[in-house]
Amino acid sequence: MSSNHKSIKKPYAIVVGLDHMNGIQTARILARHQVPVIAVAKDPQHYCCRTRICEQILFTDTATEALINTLEDLGPKLGEKAVLFPCTDAHVLLVSKYRHRLEDWYHIVLPEHDVVEMLMDKSRFYAFAQEKGLPIPRTMFLHNWADAERASRELNFPCILKPPLSSTPKWEQNSKLKAYLISNAEEFLTTYKRLAGLAEMLITQEWIEGPVSNLYSCNCYFNAESEPVATFIARKLRQWPPETGESCLGEECRNDDVLRESLRLFKSVKYRGLGYVEMKQDKRTGKHYIIEPNIGRPTGRSAIAEAGGVELIYTMYCDALVWPLPANLVQHYGTVKWIHLRRDFQSALYYWRRGELTLMDWWRSVRGRKVDALFAWDDPGPFIGDLERAIRLFLSPEERRKRDYSTPLKQT
Questions:
Q1: In the predicted structure, residue 337 carries a pLDDT above the cut 90
Q2: Prediction pTM value
Q3: 3-state helix, strand, coil in the chain (%, to 5)
């Protein structure tokens, strides 16, 4: 960054979805680069909104067109074009759909809208992957009961059952999980019957055998010429909820197969922006399979890339403004880890109770240089708020029952 850019106030970054882990991490990363941040959130009571690093927090219904109206109202007040960071799938879809209303005031770093929709809709993406020969698990699309019965006969179990889009309000209101791990045909049909009304269709995939540590990810950033400017490979060590949850402990690593397939996917669609691909290695064959892409937004593991020396988030900010890019763009494959401390404690306790994790195993897994999802000495409010919320939920028998993950399939 040139000295001129350091001596003047930088253009705003607008972080949409502060009331989400991706949002608070993104806001902190940008603020540490002296970027002024204005955040947008839906829930004023959310623990992440206790942060003190944003110049301003605006509240609106971020799941509807009200978000676009709020951004239109804000735009003329900014002085110059800001860089927009949508932080959840729903925000990406809204910003992409209405980009023509926002482009006068915001740099929107996304591929074409049809690419956004295809990569975010699991049914369309898996069909695309089958057509292009990308490695995915055996996949079937369930439009009705007949499709479900056929899948129950033809699939090898265990399998996964999930919606094309897990960020829809109907799914989020009725299910605590993004996907369900199912062990046999009877359970499959019972679960399908219970979930079928939450989405127009459901997707089922055969389960890829292997431990959580066989789940790898590639975080990356592609410029306007669809060139991969920065990439970062990591893997899960634990997740919460168990089996089908989100990472709560991960570490950087090297996996050239994951890097190659991730780049092949994004190059095939002339991609631009932040991208993420999760892949799992089958312990039986060693083959890697694409589980899903996440596009157009930071992810929970964007922060591990920054801690490992690859400045993904700030690279997007600079590239959008046509500024010189940061010097740190190459992964050196160190040993940095990322942890969501409270969730990892829950996960570790779950596996310890099952006899699958010893105290020594736990210590080995968490020791070393780490970045925390929520805790920060200079911004403790979100961590404290999350802890207070967890205690309130624990003291509620009904909430404890809803969050009992003692079996792989969680009733919601």
A1: yes
A2: 0.87
A3: 40, 20, 40
- Residue pair 141/49 in contact (Cβ under 8 Å)? The answer is no
pLDDT of res. 1: 41
Q: What are the strands, taking DSSP E only, across 228-301?
A: 228-240, 246-252, 273-281, 288-295
Specify the amino acid at residue 60.
T
How many CB atoms within 10 Å of residue 260? 12
- The helix/strand/coil state of 219 is strand
Which residues, 6+ apart, have CB-to-CB distance to 22 below 8 Å?
A: 87, 88, 297, 298, 299, 300, 302
Q: Which residue has the higher pLDDT, 203 or 397?
A: 203
Token readout for 395 is 């003291």
Would you say how long the chain is, in residues? 412
212-373 has which CATH code?
3.30.470.20
Residues 172 and 178: their CA atoms lie apart, in Å, by 8
**Helix/strand/coil for 252:** strand
* pLDDT exceeds 90 at position 167: no
Q: Assign 3-class secondary structure to 92-136.
A: HHHHHHCHHHHCCCEECCCCCHHHHHHHHCHHHHHHHHHHHCCCC
CB-CB contact of 177 with 241 (8 Å): yes
The CATH superfamily label for domain 3-108 reads: NAD(P)-binding Rossmann-like Domain (3.40.50.720)
Domain boundaries, the chain: 3-108, 138-207, 212-373
Q: Class of 138-207 per CATH?
A: alpha beta
20-62 pLDDT, tens per residue?
A: 999 999 999 999 999 999 999 999 999 999 999 999 999 999 9
Asked whether this chain's domains 3-108 and 212-373 adopt the same fold, the reply is no
Which pLDDT value is given to residue 410?
Answer: 36
Rounded to whole angstroms, the Cα distance separating 46 from 64 reads 18
| C-beta atoms surrounding 107 within 10 Å | 19
Q: How confident is the model at residue 149 (pLDDT cuts 50, 70, 90)?
A: very high
For the segment 71-89, what is each residue's pLDDT rounded down to a tens digit?
999 999 999 999 999 999 9
